[in-house]
Fold this protein.
Amino acid sequence: MLRINCPWCGVRDEAEFRYRGDASLARPEQSAPAAAFAAYVYERDNELGWHREWWLHVGGCRKLLKVTRHTLTHEIREVSG
Amino acid sequence: MIPGPGRVAVGMMTDPKRPIRFRFDGRTFRGLAGDTLASALLANGQQIAGRSLKYHRPRGILTCGPEEPCALVELAGKQGREPNRPATMVELYEGLEADSQNRWPTLHFDLLRTSELFARFLPAGFYYKTFMSPGRAWEYLYEPVLRRAAGLGRLRSSGKAPHLPAEILHDHLDVLIVGSGTAGLAAAQRLARRGLRIMVAEEDSVLGGGSLLDERWTLWRQAALRNLEALPTVRCLTRTAVIGAYGHGVFAALETLTGAESTRLAGLRERLRVIRSRSVIFATGAIERLVAFPGNDVPGVMLAGAALKYLRRYGVAAGRQPAFFLNSDEAYECVFAFAAAGIKHGTIIDVRAGSPAADRARALGYEVIHRGRVQAVLGRAYLRGLRVSAGENQPLRKLKADCLLISGGYTPAIALATQLGAEPRWRDDIAAFTAELSPALGQLAGAARGITGLAAGATDGESAARLVASQLGQEFGADPPATTLPADPETAALSPLWEVPGEGKSFVDLQNDVTCEDVRLAAREGYEHVEHMKRYTTHGMATDQGRIGGLLGSAVLAQARGLAVSEVGQPKARPFAQSVPFAALAGAEAGEHFKPKRRLPLHDWHESAGATFVNIGLWLRPLVYSQHPGWEPVLNEARAVRSSVGITDLSTLGKIDVQGPDAARFLDFVYANAFSNLRVGGARYGLMLREDGMLFDDGTTSRLANEHFLITTTTANSAAVLEHLEFQLQANWPQLDVQLTDVGDHWAQFAVAGPRSREVVSSVVTGLELSNAAFPFMSAAAARIADVAGRVFRISFSGELAYELSVPALHARTVWTALLAAGTPYSIVPYGLDALNTLRIEKGHVTGAELNGNTSADDLGMQRMLKKQGDYIGRSLAQRPGFYAPDRLQLVGVRPLDAQRRLRNGAQLLRPGARTGSLGYLTSVTAAAAFDGWVGLALLSAGRSRLGQRLVAASPTHAENVDVEVVSPHMYDPENLRVRA
Amino acid sequence: MSSLPDNPPPSAPDARRGGGHYSGWRLLVEGLRSQRGWSRAWSKSTPRPHYRVVIVGGGGHGLATAYYLATEFGISDVAVLEKGPIGLGNVGRNTTLIRSNYFQPDNIRFYDYSLRLWEGLERRLNFNTMVSQRGTLNLFHTEAQRDLFTRRANVMRVQGVDAEALNRAAVKRLVPLIDLDNGRYPVLGGFLQRRGGTVRHDAVAWGYARAACRAGVDIIEQCEVTAIRRANDRVIGVDTTRGPIGADIVCLAVAGHSSRLAAMVDLRLPIETHVLQAFVTESVKPLLHCVVTYGAGHFYVSQSDKGGLVFGGGIDGYNSYGQRGSLSVAEEVTAAGVTLMPELARLRVLRQWGGVMDMSMDGSPIISKTPIDNLILNGGWCYGGFKAIPAGGMTTAHLIAHGIPHPLAAHLDLRRFAAGRMVDERGIGPFPYAH
């Protein structure tokens, strides 16, 4: 059960946040080929280890936070936003 | 002296001046206030308490705590009968009624005992090797029989479920201390003096743990409890078992209320506590374990530590002619307690060669057989005696005894720690696993860490406290203990004792009737990994989760495989450390309160107008203003709109206010069609795609000022769209200067629709000219409505001339009432969701039924809306070849050839005469107001090329086939003359 | 924490007998012989230097694929490599449900093929997998849901698959435990697939392993793949904790960990790994005779033959390999359960565990070649992998043996994402955490 240290609101339960997936991806420019968009939307590293991911604080400040969390131990190393 | 168990002294917990009457298996007994059901049964000489699952062997009371595997009873209560309650945990009250389980007809005469005759043909896993023929015989013949035989107790409710109270409490702590033995209380005192917020959670009904059983510790314990009580930041909870450790400092604990507390709280039985703590100390102690020998399940066999507890706490002796089978000095405390209670004759069978405790026992008058082993138990329904071997090459001796108190050692309770990732570590000196927790998370202390002795435990608790405090940034030195600790007696080492082989069944799991032979069979058949052995034999899978027999099973397996126990290991421990009722986990947000109810600002008005409400997500929305079923009332509402005017409450729509210099640019990005070129005062239908090119949501967005837009979304997607926009803005466009505000609940919104709507709206709106020239179709403006500042939008979902009026929710009633009054000359009617649906289907507008997440803009005929220049979400992937496959489902309209036939949502469209090969399905259907008969919308393979074709709408679930014609989805006023009037 | 010795002794000559034929008669005989005649259900082989087919993953799909390769396609030069003991991954952690009530016609055909393979599997494997088709009941609570389920039932019926609508009274007769009107969302009715039900999950792994072994497949446990070796755009073998093993074809059947294996060949998959939790109660006498899914919250339940109610809900919702879940899911699932069946209030939940799912980007599985021609992927099962084991095994074996997809699994190709041909049952989109 995660508790995330929101920089604006403090440590809050995971129930207050909405997960939005891998935050290491940048949306391609308009001119990029279709394959780049397909990779952005579909392909994931999905690694076992440190994961940079988005969490939207819907039950609080509604800021989008970038969280670095280990996908096996769930330890959270960094929260920014 | 009558053999068997009975009350021989005054116990710590029981009050001889307060007798209590209770019933067990229909017989009335007497116990004392403070007894458990188990201690009271033993006090009454009742040794047998149940029958085992598979073999229906008589079983007694083995333990004195939650780890009880045998004495499981069915408890009668106000809420019905509860199965599988350990008699050791049931606190006695006047009028308690309990029954033994798993026997027929009675406990003493169980016909199902005959199953043991077939035991040889029913080894572990036998059901995997048979029951395969004939065909469906498994579920019709074999399985029902097995299912009836399996299962322990019966869950029976008392009929209509009463409203049961439930409660979840939340605690925020610096340190959670699990267990109140010497280690736990010592740690608590040490930490509490630093002002840290501490909770001591003790699963027992009294604080003190092992110190309760040694009189020398009474003063220390009382002082500790006094100290803790005096501190405001400390709470000590009893009957509170920590049942799960979830990481990030989150723990779940189950607090069981006493009878009195329960009565005071309207029948609340337990409550869940969700604890959030910065650190934890697991002072959870160690659990005494079983020994395997033939007949180790006969009533009268009990764990030595349990017998000690029964004597000290309840004054009950497990028997008057005790025998003991031990391997450690710690277990001798039981012997000394018997002696102190006046039972000074008995035999101790100690597997070791000698020890200080053995010497002391002998001095008290007990016989000690060194290097001894119990080879067999005499007696079936109750223990009558033993056969023991007195060392190597010694003849067997027969002993008379009425109880056998056994101890195989003490297994540290590390389940919670392992849930936090602590790795189990084998310790030869205690012949068990303990664990080491990452210091960042907390500490183990005392017997849980394999420390023996109460004083050693207290010292260990103090050092754990120091380590935890240091982790929390509070260093302190080693203070001397406040009170002198009684010295731990000198003890000799434990000698591992697992199994004494011999003729007859010896059990490793007393609930599921798993024997040593079963474990060996599993190894022989290749189920030799401990997890396979567990699943194959079901060892450790019952309600006691292998607490007393788990390690024993691993040891028997290790021996069969020629490995050390440490190499074999144990199956993984998981929540819950004690089983927890559904009601406690569920809390109060169940039943009527499972999900919130969202009510419209005008809910009361709709209700008094006779509306039938429907659940749309969390909302309650008026479906139709009538309590009569059927289409008539709906069609009346719809026809009123088409012929004159109607009003409907659309307040549930999502509304998002978008402001800022970059607002237009942002909308161009999130919408597939353009918004930057929308005039101020204009409204435009917007299509939002997902990044994978599929339609996500639609709605009308208005431009109220150059840098001010208002987005509307469908009701169902209002939260999702807002999250989507916030995500896109912050993740992909952080440089844009845009503010998003959710104003969904701020505004109440009504549609006034129909040919007379202009007259009605004009008479309540001021500050805005509403002629067709001044306020054309798709316009938006601020205005005063019934003298309330609001907004007027000229948009239409119904296909008629229509306006949507938006006012702050507080003024909803004023404005609604004014509109009704203004509409009276035109016979205005309120219309609900059903009528709204009828109107929009006739017009061909799509909703979530068509925007179902698998449709593209092109599928719904909206390809032309996609802008040609500029990037937007979904642009690239909407061009994938799959989006233009010729067989894609496209939006069409459908009309039955026979106006009398009805259509069904979900009916499949087939070629005439075909029974298979679905071409698509009906998405939205309605009895029509503007046409004869029914109309519908459908998604049909290559639909646009099939206009005019005749197909069959088949609904096998209704046994209906209807001939239909494929038509354009825009059936009503396709030229849009009425909306533009 | 527990382990087999590094080098188990070579298999005894009769190790492939799989303990001999299983039958009631055999139980009788062995009962009289004190169980002396039982032997290993499957042998734990030592790896050979090369196999025609190496299957990575000794779970349900890996073992089934090996079995069908050997018995249907004549290829027994096969090794199944499992990093631990077989069958302790998702095949040993699921809630044991089987059904074929899907929306997409392609999926209906695939899952119903699986259902038909379940029927009669015991006799084929000579192992009682306890296939119990006592029915799957899906409840609905709104008209919109009724329409959705009507559509699904109609699609199924048009395909020749069983589905029927039940009114409230019929629901109550089938499952007296349900309180139709208790709660926030009263039950309006249900849809029943009578051929749905449960299977004993451990027996599936053990049964397929034993039968595959008898057919000549090598089952190699405690053998973790650490690298996949390539040469000239082809896979030539794997490196493992028990040494290198060469292969003509490598098949990945490691759902939950597909991305990690794929990363060994620099392949990124449309998959996120998520935790799905499951729970079991204390054992009680028979109370519930079919599988029930709640329509107003995440909750589904059945009663195992051992008497415990096995139930679960939705995924926890963020990337995790943790095989354990959060407390809030336990609270939500039990709240839903006690809302639907108030009589469960006093029933005690015993244990909570989790498995890790390959959550795919459209919620449907992947049985496909990869950009590397002789590397086959069986994964992306989301939470529907168990029921698909027979069909997954058969169609993967077909793909391996023939080099072209089985017609019933052709829609599960990996290239469907780039092509825009997603198979999205509920239209959720490329958000694995929402499927």
